[in-house]
Amino acid sequence: MTTVGATTTPLGDVTNARRLVDLVFRAREFGIVVVLAILVFATASIESRFLDLSNVQFILVDTTIFALLALGQTMVVLTRNVDLSIGSVLGLSAFLSADLFGHHQGIPIALVFLAGLGIGAGCGLANGFLTVVGRVPSLVVTLAMLYIIRGIDVLVVGGGQVVASSLPNSFIEIPKKTVVGIPVLAIVVAGVVALGAYYLRSFRSGRELYAIGSNPDAARLAGIPSGRRVFTAFLVSGAIAGIAGVLYAAKYGTIDSTAGSGYELQVIAAVVVGGVAIFGGSGSVVGAALGALLLNTILSALYVLGVSPFWNQAIAGALLLGAIALDRGISLWLAAALRKRRTHLGA
Amino acid sequence: MTEQQQPVLSLEHASKAFGAIHALEDVSIHLYPGEVHGLVGENGAGKSTLVKILGGVHLPDAGALRIDRREVVLKGPAASRDAGVAIIYQEPIMFPDLTVAENIFIGRQPLRAGRRIDARGMNALAAGMFERLGVPIDPERIARGLSIAEQQIVEIAKALSLDAKVIVMDEPTAALSAVEVELLFAVVETLRSSGVAVLFISHRLEEVFSLCRRVTVLRDGRLVLSRDLAGLTGDDLVRAMVGRDLPERVPQDQNIGDTVLRVERLTREGVFVDVSFEVRSGEIVALAGLVGAGRSEVACAIFGIDRYEAGSVTVNGKPLRRGSPTSAMGTGIGLVPEDRRQQGLVMEMSIGRNITLASLSRLRRMGFIRAAAEQRFARDWAARLQVKFGRLGNPMTSLSGGNQQKVVLAKWLARRPALLIVDEPTRGIDIATKAEVHRLLEELAGEGVAVLVISSELPEVLRLADRILVMREGRLVAEFGHADASEETIVAAATGQVEQAAA
Questions:
Q1: What pTM was computed for the model?
Q2: In chain B, N or C terminus with fewer CB closer than 10 Å?
Q3: From the list A18, A215, A223, which residue is nearest B96 (CB)?
């Protein structure tokens, strides 16, 4: 009827719409990398100490714990839920697993990791059960679990603490091992995150986590076992927090009853900065891990630049707001762009 | 010929009651392969119940369902799907964050080695299906931003991928533009010729006539007729649905007064350009055109919901501030929006509170709302508009679509507006209530209110409007007086075929 291009149909400009959407989503992870690069460059140009091998290693090892937690949290957030208990789970697991060394001389390290995983999985089980079977919003369930587990932690630890001297050297050395200057732990965690990303993208059960978060009612109608999937997500998140607790013990050596408190919010911040939609359905674990790296790098940069640590939280908060504003801006722009394409349809 | 064929689906003597209400009583319907079967009836006639029985949502209390001559009991949506029945809802339920192909195949994606998803194979399958349907939708784009028509096509593709033998389309065209309806019809034709049995539900009788071979009419849960369409007229169907003749259109009032609304050269980049018109007191002006032509957007700009870059809006001679619904309401404008559930009503709130929502300042004393006065006020307006409700305290969700619309109207009429803008006043409303809404609007105009109606339904436009303005691609392209307008001239203007039509 009119002179429209070959790709324009009554249903809109098909290929362009997709390119646009693709671009926006790839842009998110790419954007973090760019911000990260600018941050590293700017900080290093003011204070070259920032790029010292030891500092880079420190940032990477510090990030591993958050990146792991972000992986578990992403799986939960994708399903339109949230796990606020991970900080407490980490604390409990860190103390109990370190305590094992004190009570059982010569216990294999692998067994301690297994114990941490078991403790975390147990907590995740409780979260999943109450959320799925009890139909209580996960925000409430995991907030309650945050306090309950922290309470148990305080009871168990009492006023005491585990000190590094009671831990075997081979355990404390774990975070310090490097291959050509790169911490082994960082490489392992990068591999785990990559596996997580592959699972979420290429397996039915992984895609179903996205589906559940994108539209819970539609998921149920499509015959997706929503309950089982959400339950699994909590189980994985808890188990990961348990393992992260063991790593925490290895890294810091000294553990008291406040270990890991507040981590849950830092991890959620990392996940959101990394582009995972807080109401589920979209985002990637790679983005979440990059978000964790960015947050840690910023904290380190502030430290190296001699900014008072009192600013840390304010800056993390500002970054979070910035990320959410960016998301909102992008989605508005995207919606407008997709709409505009449609209004120009030929009649 | 199909006369000798066996029906692929037969529902026989089905009944379903909810408490004391008989939603369906002794209804039988037979669907044949390669045939489109129309199902019409007013809201509340039992169409939805019938659809839900076929979809496995409800089990019938009595009666039998046969698919391929085998008796089946559909316990749940999955059973219905496995039996080869697919339901396409008016507004499909989708996963906005997943790709189109994933929306089709979720939970049963093709796999390759190691139980991994074969994404390439999945996309190719989806692309093949869209090709078969003759609609180019990119399987790899995310579903967010798909138009309703596109979403329906995706659902149809999903039905095809499940080898559905029966596709039930529940008022698919209610939210589609004319172009999209044509496209959907082409898809339905493809389905029909490939041997699928289609049950097509619509409020628009002309669609039933152009698409269907047989028709079933329900009224109050009972079967009124089920036969070949050949030999039936629209009036026959209306009479069967309503059980009586509808009143003929009311003669136009000639008490048109001074200009109430004056819109001059209104422009919003990329949406509408240079729109100028007037609405006078006592006049009903209709804005016609295709969906997406910019009609609702003009209304939103006048009311101050959307901004505009250039132009002006004057109400009773006073210029209106841009982007301020509060000041628009202050000058006496009311807006009944297109999407009553999302924009017109607070669905969780009670019926009474929804009615008084725009009039709270009048019900206040020293900052407190007087509950008794609010109750009286709501009851009064609910009665004037003949809203059928249980209790004023019931939530909006307890009302039918038509009665919900009356509540939105009541909310605005209670403010005694000088100008009422009504966007798609009767979408998804049954014929009898539709006539009531039309009568209401005519009465309003008779009382001197200026009314601006936006409607995609031409019979409605032709019936109501004193003047008809036609928009196309963001511009006002034609104006007709009541006497010179016809469906043909409006469609020609709306689709840009004025030249041909005039020649």
A1: 0.76
A2: N
A3: A215
